[in-house]
From TrEMBL:
Cellular component, GO annotation: cell surface; plasma membrane
Keyword Repeat: yes
Name of the protein described by the UniProt record: Ig-like domain-containing protein
This protein's UniProt keywords: Disulfide bond, Glycoprotein, Immunoglobulin domain, Repeat, Signal
Keyword Nucleus recorded: no
Domain Ig-like: 147-232, 240-317, 325-410
Length: 450
């Protein structure tokens, strides 16, 4: 595109009078096959850019191009004339020095402002002084600055305080858009947007609504996004939890309890033991505990900002380890199918549970066996040879357990015909036979034949 010469001084050619005469007779010609059109390059300009109103399909045999501000030929809105023969630009009343007309009629605006937005009329004057008119439009948008978010309350209380976020600054012809956690807003009862989307109101906020919040501004010429904005949501304290979960301890152990409650700002902690205030700490430690340390342990939590208080109570039981029990038997040698036997587990401890073992295995009850209500007494009536063996009882509380020594029960029975010496496989629970220096040794038997 050929660059024009500098603007000429008035007086080289009587253009002023000609323009006046032509303006009085200007009309819109019927469109030709190649109609005069004007294109804005770029279509949407940003303030400070250079913008070209590019002319397409100008007619031939031209004498001059004349540009006007507005949608019609108006001498008062005359910007400049370009004399083709002289290759000169003749300024008009609206010429600012930032306009340049090229030899093809295109008009360049340098460093445009929003005031340049509007319609522009190009009048082409032919050598025979006939004219054609074309219309173009220039749109200039403000160069958007980086927005920022302001807030009416950046430290709201959960479920209480509404929060109003505003995207600043307010700019005309600008679209506002919000993002929460890098996601576009979804329809929700706890969100409300202003008509222009510049203000976002949050209702019934929770501790999960801290953000980040971002706002975007957009116009056809530029787009910007704010820095992330976070809320400091005040909440709690929630009901505290005391750990560990254990409630039963053995005498002499160390008691170490910790209390925790979700809270912002962090909660203040204190303890009560059986209603008596203790130190104001999150941790509670008592070494070498005794039964006197049993009772209720209360953790109190307080949030100085929300003003809320919560408490949790844990019952601690301290027990002595159980002593070893013993077994008392009504008889340790009984006759099969004739006698009954009663085994009693003896202990000085209280609050214990009792279990029975037979040959080092949990005792499986048969129809001939009966336990007392507290399991301390085992009755076998009548006894059989299968009942011969080793018996133990075990007592336990919530912190310890102990087994008795073994009590061995012997069962006498009549020999079965065909069995050598009245002993056969399946009759005697075990026989250990060893050979030492050619001598057979038999282990003590739990069964006796008669």
């Amino acid at each position: 595109m050929e660059h024009p010469s500098a603007p000429a001084h008035r007086g080289h050619f009587p253009w002023q009078g000609l323009l006046l005469a032509v303006s009085l007779t200007t009309f819109w010609n019927q469109p030709t096959a190649a109609q005069l059109t004007i294109e804005s390059v770029p279509t949407n300009a940003v303030q400070g850019q250079d913008v070209l109103l590019l002319v397409h399909h100008p007619p031939g045999d031209l004498a001059a191009y004349v540009w006007y501000k507005g949608a019609r030929v108006d001498p008062n809105q005359h910007i400049a004339l370009y004399a083709i023969g002289q290759q000169e630009i003749i300024p008009g009343p609206l010429y600012s020095g930032r306009e340049t007309i090229y030899s093809n009629g295109s008009l360049l605006f340098q460093n445009v402002t929003q005031e340049n937005t509007g319609y522009y009329t190009l009048q082409v004057i032919k050598a025979n002084f006939q004219t054609e008119v074309g219309l173009g439009h220039l749109q200039v948008y403000l160069e958007l600055t980086k927005p920022n978010i302001t807030c009416n309350n950046s430290n709201p209380v959960e479920h209480e305080d509404p929060v109003v976020l505003t995207c600043e600054p307010e700019t005309q012809n600008t679209t506002y858009r919000w993002l929460i956690n890098n996601q576009s807003l979804l329809d929700s009862a706890w969100l409300k947007l202003s008509l222009d989307n510049r203000t976002l109101t949050l209702f019934n906020i929770t501790r999960n609504d801290t953000g980040p919040y971002e706002c975007e501004t957009w116009n056809p010429g530029s787009a910007r996004r704010s820095d992330p904005f976070y809320l400091n949501i005040l909440y709690g304290p929630d009901a505290p939890t005391i750990s560990p979960a254990d409630s039963y301890y053995q005498q002499g152990a160390n008691l170490s309890l910790s209390c925790h409650a979700a809270s912002n700002p962090p909660a203040q902690y204190s303890w009560l033991i059986n209603g008596r205030p203790q130190q104001s700490t999150q941790e509670l430690f008592i070494p070498n505990i005794t039964a006197n340390d049993s009772g209720s342990y209360t953790c109190l939590v307080h949030n100085s900002v929300t003003g809320l208080n919560r408490a949790t109570v844990k019952t601690i039981t301290v027990s002595e380890p159980v002593a070893q029990p013993s077994i008392r038997a009504s008889n340790t040698t009984v006759t099969e199918q004739k006698d009954a036997v009663v085994l009693t587990c003896l202990t000085s401890d209280t609050g214990i549970s009792t279990q029975w073992f037979f040959n080092n295995q949990h005792l499986g009850l048969t129809e001939r066996m009966k336990l007392s209500q507290d399991n301390s007494t085992l009755t076998i009536d009548p006894v059989k040879r299968d009942d011969a063996g080793d018996y133990q009882c075990e007592v336990s509380n919530l912190v310890s357990s102990s087994k008795s020594d073994i009590l061995r029960l012997y069962v006498k029975y009549a020999p079965t015909p065909g069995n050598s010496a009245g002993l056969s496989a399946g009759v005697i629970d075990s026989i250990v036979v060893g050979v030492l220096a050619g001598v057979t040794l038999a282990a003590p038997l739990h069964f006796l034949y008669i």
